[in-house]
Specification:
The structure is a homotetramer. The first copy, chain A, is an alpha/beta fold. Chain A has 13 helices and 14 strands. Chain A is about 40% helix and about 20% strand.
Chain lengths: ~400, ~400, ~400, ~400
Amino acid sequence: MSDVRKVVLAYSGGLDTSVIVKWLQETYGCEVVTFTADLGQGEEVEPARAKAQALGVKEIYIEDLRETFVRDYVFPMFRANTVYEGEYLLGTSIARPLIARRLVEIANETGADAIAHGATGKGNDQVRFELGAYALKPGVRVIAPWREWDLTSREKLMAYCEQHEIPVDFAQNKKKSPYSMDANLLHISYEGGVLEDPWTEAEEEMWRWSVSPEAAPDQATYIDLTFEKGDVVAIDGRSMPAHEILSYLNRIGGENGIGRLDIVENRYVGMKSRGCYETPGGTILLRAHRAIESITLDRESAHLKDELMPRYAELVYNGYWWSPERHMLQAAIDQSQTTANGVVRLKLYKGNVIVVGRQSEDSLFDASIATFEDDAGAYDQKDAEGFIRLNALRLRIGASRGRAND
Amino acid sequence: MSDVRKVVLAYSGGLDTSVIVKWLQETYGCEVVTFTADLGQGEEVEPARAKAQALGVKEIYIEDLRETFVRDYVFPMFRANTVYEGEYLLGTSIARPLIARRLVEIANETGADAIAHGATGKGNDQVRFELGAYALKPGVRVIAPWREWDLTSREKLMAYCEQHEIPVDFAQNKKKSPYSMDANLLHISYEGGVLEDPWTEAEEEMWRWSVSPEAAPDQATYIDLTFEKGDVVAIDGRSMPAHEILSYLNRIGGENGIGRLDIVENRYVGMKSRGCYETPGGTILLRAHRAIESITLDRESAHLKDELMPRYAELVYNGYWWSPERHMLQAAIDQSQTTANGVVRLKLYKGNVIVVGRQSEDSLFDASIATFEDDAGAYDQKDAEGFIRLNALRLRIGASRGRAND
Amino acid sequence: MSDVRKVVLAYSGGLDTSVIVKWLQETYGCEVVTFTADLGQGEEVEPARAKAQALGVKEIYIEDLRETFVRDYVFPMFRANTVYEGEYLLGTSIARPLIARRLVEIANETGADAIAHGATGKGNDQVRFELGAYALKPGVRVIAPWREWDLTSREKLMAYCEQHEIPVDFAQNKKKSPYSMDANLLHISYEGGVLEDPWTEAEEEMWRWSVSPEAAPDQATYIDLTFEKGDVVAIDGRSMPAHEILSYLNRIGGENGIGRLDIVENRYVGMKSRGCYETPGGTILLRAHRAIESITLDRESAHLKDELMPRYAELVYNGYWWSPERHMLQAAIDQSQTTANGVVRLKLYKGNVIVVGRQSEDSLFDASIATFEDDAGAYDQKDAEGFIRLNALRLRIGASRGRAND
Amino acid sequence: MSDVRKVVLAYSGGLDTSVIVKWLQETYGCEVVTFTADLGQGEEVEPARAKAQALGVKEIYIEDLRETFVRDYVFPMFRANTVYEGEYLLGTSIARPLIARRLVEIANETGADAIAHGATGKGNDQVRFELGAYALKPGVRVIAPWREWDLTSREKLMAYCEQHEIPVDFAQNKKKSPYSMDANLLHISYEGGVLEDPWTEAEEEMWRWSVSPEAAPDQATYIDLTFEKGDVVAIDGRSMPAHEILSYLNRIGGENGIGRLDIVENRYVGMKSRGCYETPGGTILLRAHRAIESITLDRESAHLKDELMPRYAELVYNGYWWSPERHMLQAAIDQSQTTANGVVRLKLYKGNVIVVGRQSEDSLFDASIATFEDDAGAYDQKDAEGFIRLNALRLRIGASRGRAND
């Protein structure tokens, strides 16, 4: 293991990754560079500096990546109306490629020959970190301590801390929680604990970002979202950068009990797992994006997007953000978004996101054609007969040859 | 037009189709057979008999098709988690193939050489009726009066009634409504009127089947749905036939403000149209079905279903229920449902359908593998390294050849 | 019909379209603009000028579009490895959007309010011309004489000629043929006549562009094709513009008995039809393009292309070249072609196109990894175990729950 | 390693798997059961008995699986027109699931707790064997000696033979070849040696099953293939079981220089590899199957099959034959084949498979509709106008809103 000289670690400042710093120094006898990012997880990142220093780290990267995260990762993903397995908005998945990219870039800057992360060997995140790293720096060495070490229980971990004088209060920057959690501007997730029984309802006290629908205001909230090329650029007419848009929607969504999700999902590594998610802003975004597309997208573009979406979602979930096939799909999706401009009006009420209006200068909705009233010749109803008869021709030929179409 | 001797008409008993009876008799000089079906639209169908008789109809078919409708059409469609354009549950679409089938069967029984319907030349329903009819009886003649006659305004229609002594009270069995409406056990739909401006919010008084989330009870309702092969067969442990299941879910869903939808959709005939829908039971069904699948379906089966679904939805929407390609997709879908058995527990509250539990003897969820605790060797974390490295191999080779994966 | 003042006609100079000129002048009392294009059909286009003049046409467009045709239509289509129904290389289909575009552009230049073409009401070409025209000039009037007039037999057509003094020798610029034919640089097609019985073998004398495999040289021909971004740019190291590339391949392919095809295909208008095609250059191109992709494309890019291709082919066949969904797919496909560079060596022999070598500076083929010999650690065989075990995990869980995977 | 008591080995009787027998006995101290199958590889399997006995094996399975192989694996795959990456007919891939199944069944019969195979750690076959085994017997132990041992060169292997007195003539039942080869009734494959340079043309002497097109007869051969439900059941009117059909086609195809293929393919384990294949019968089958489908399949069924095929091919190639998703696709495919009945006439000539006729009582080809002659009203050309106009409507609306469709 002596061949690793320097490793860049995705460092949260928490207990686990602090242990990893020490373990890497000891096990590999190498220098550790820490990288801590503010992705909107709702905790200060600056305290990580002192902790890293206390662990003897000399090169410390602490970065605010919130705008990049939302603008270049979250928003492109939402252009595809991306949902994994019909429900999950991919809040954890979409943050990983950005972290992988920064790990690799920092490795290049600091001359490190390895990267490391604190994800376990059972989950999707290890895959996402490592596929990203390999795609961007093919010769990189990846160290995943959870797959290597024998600190397989909380007790062993605490013993290691004591033995190596890692301050226990490193663990205290998170509220105590029986759940394994992850957060960024798109969502907060919960796994483990009582959730491991899929028949057990999640406890109310678990949720952190949203009130329950019951506890939400009795008065509905209306908002207008302005879209440009498929991305929200303004709320109620006020322009904001991408991360402030999402932040605003998280707050207003959370207040209205929006965005809770409780599912059993299929992990890429082959097992099913129960997860609970709060995605207030994302839930609003998805609904609004479909609404703006409903008046501005051509039918066949929209249908093609719907057919490609599950594949795109799978790629993001599985960790293939940095892959040629994701780029191909993104090219097709982005091609469709040039006209996804306009305003969507939403009513938020106790968990509900209700579309109540949409308008656009790029609207393809043409009341003069669709109207039940006289359309002044905009549409010739007689055209429908030929349309139907030729679409039916193959079915009629089949039936006349004795094919049972029923 | 003298070559039509007898025509079977989809007859609602309302004013429009009563005019059609008379118009067919006059224009084609033919006998008219009426067919009126109870699909759960919530109105008595028996009154149609006297009206038809008054119009001189001798062969009158009045049928309760509710069970067939839900069991053989609605439920098979829900096995696919079918949603059109991300939102619409296809309530109108799925009723048409059954009506088309009965029209054709009655034509065969009565020796009729034509069928007729009251759908306009602008909508999807004409296509669905006629594709179905042609697929099942390729030589059938189809008469679509709205595409042929000149009764293009309400005034002309009323004048025709007066002239032909069609009792005006034929119009009175429906509540007056400014909307074009359609209902069956799966949903009720609204089009036209103020909805023709997609920026205008639907009025509260429009909705008929559900209370608003605001008006729903402050207390949540819990229900358990039991699935067998992908279909709900019992509610709270009580077995019911398919149509009673849906009827029960409509009632309980409507009481809890569930299932309202307001969208702009793409019609098969090429235009966009605004529609509002109430689908209380269907909205519950969809959520519950995904939940039972989440623990009982293999990952790749589920993903394949998700990729095929938009195509399947398009087929149903466009009227290709009676087509070989729909049968192909149904064969694949049904193949996946043999293990979709178990119970889903839902919480219904002010418009929200919240999955709170799922259990099944066919569950593939294995807490002993997924657990964050010690798994006693059920899963070897070291396997993940090889898994990731080989999945990354093509990306690494590409990157090492200078491909920019970012 | 008096509202049409000027119409642009796709004019071949042959008898049928000459009749159409006269018929349009008479029936619509309008001015006719003729448009004749050299797409490589192998006949002089200049003679069309005198004929059009003789028919009283004042605005005559005669254009050599061969380079545009191959560069902007044929080559982009081949980037997708496009094949319709597993066999057909879309030679007729791909020429139509270019003609539609020029008809519309000429209509705009000349102030014409209508376009006209000589395609029948049974075929795909009417659809392709008209969808293209409507997509590019939505208010255009389209006149399709074959769907309107009563000149439904050869006799009536000849009578019309005599009556209107259209010189009979207009018919003589084509060799007499019992087949309906169409040709351009990509192919020549044959329909009708004895081909209407799909059990009857095509006669040897029907084929015009290629010798039979039997008559081809006993000596094989080798050629090297150089690709840049998915397009062939040089043959045997000699750079040529796109149309000369295809022309060269047609000649050398035809000499070697390559590119004959005899199929029954499904028309967009709903019927099956028998067609025979000679596509010597295209057949070579397709094989070579797949070969260059085989060493330069990432696996998942290639597989995604394969999954999208049938949809793309259907769009081209059905006439949706000028549609947003085709542009979406093209964006994805073109994204994949940046690395499709290199040289493919082919052996042409009596109908066979045999790939015998491929090389590229962008090759992803890595003999040091794939080798059966010692790979010096480039690939760790132990990785395969984890790869297999995690890919198998869902199957194992299923089987252990009693699922019969067989 | 003492926990393995008995292992079933896929035993060819050759040198490599003979070494494996000994190595398993030594390394695992376990009993070895050998399984040798005749899949039509063209070598006697019975000699494997004496060799196994000489190695001390007590339970020896030698089976003729040719009919099962073709009937239950090859033919179902061909119903899908399965081709991997546009070229490869999956000859090796399709044999693996059958072998995996028999290994597992024999393990169950003999009370073995493990299976073993002689595939290397770089190839696809290990994946196919092991995914199959895990899917059918989830708790099975798999031993892949090539991933475990240190006999990584031919020299070490020969030394092991000498040391363990494995007769060297075990190696002599194959003709000496510089290639890694695999054969069964569907094909014979070649990898390695000079093929590791994709620019090098394969040597003529490499090919074993077919003559070169140059060496094939100057006279064409005609054959008629009779299909029932998508499978060939008779040749020239003579009924034969599945494996005799394929055997016959291999012979006649090989004689006519048909079925050679030279490609670079993408392995599931992540690398590209060069392979040469001879698939004479399969090449004929594929062409003929498409031809019978061309007249008997509904257009949309055929197109749906074409869109699903690449996925199906990928599943087979990657080793997921025994998976729920393959069964789903098979259900859809088989649903389409009930009408794939009839006769296809082929001309075989120097590498070419030329379809010259097809006929069927289930034909959907209707000359009376498709004809260029008078169709007596079977098709109303005026229908085309409405068909086109409504299909164009969305494009026209888009264009009239300023969308550039070009």
